[in-house]
Specification:
elongated; 2 domains; alpha+beta; Outer Surface Protein A, domain 3; 3 helices
């Protein structure tokens, strides 16, 4: 049984939720998001809470039960507070800057990387060695942060590259002569 799925998702004041078939739309101060629930679960909206129930007892229905509840909770959290992923850049000469509608990354390659900033997401560089990805959709924010990190992931010998703030990089010892 899903412990996450059993809990109803409370809708705070200032957030409007609509249910149209299997699609739930949430509108708040920061914007509007929607999610279509899978066939294995049923979603009900009553008053100030959203309830999710599985339609069967098979393994997939139970997995979708908890996932659907978590997705709906992320929608509500996104339109009220938003999400942020923070990245830091380590390495001599490695830096980031905003150039128009692009993120310009200097990561030790022979050329700078221009990453177009997608709509619905804000990328801020408070320092040349910090990148903040901010938006209301948790999956998009995480995906964009992962794409930026993938340009030069942290390496284990000197720790150079792009990593999440607070991420632990297991360091290796170099070869002994």
């Amino acid at each position: 049984m899903s412990r996450i799925g059993k809990k109803p998702v409370v809708i705070p004041s200032g957030v409007i939720a609509r249910l149209d078939g299997r699609t739930i739309s949430v509108k708040g101060a920061k914007g509007e998001l929607s999610f279509t629930a899978p066939d294995e679960v049923s979603v009900t909206l009553d008053g100030s809470a959203v309830h999710v129930q599985p339609r069967g007892e098979d393994k997939r229905a139970r997995a979708m039960w908890g996932m659907t509840r978590a997705q709906i909770a992320n929608l509500i959290s996104g339109v009220t507070h938003g999400f942020e992923k923070r990245l830091e850049i380590n390495g001599v000469g490695y830096k980031a800057a905003i150039a128009g509608k692009n993120l310009q990354l200097s990561l030790g390659y022979s050329h700078d990387i221009l990453y177009p900033i997608p709509a619905g997401v804000t990328i801020v560089t408070p320092k040349p060695t910090e990148i903040n990805v901010v938006g209301i959709d948790k999956r998009r924010v995480g995906q964009i942060a992962a794409e930026i990190r993938a340009f030069r992931g942290p390496e284990p010998y000197k720790g150079k590259g792009v990593k999440y703030v607070g991420e632990f990089i297991f360091r290796k010892e170099g070869k002994k002569k």
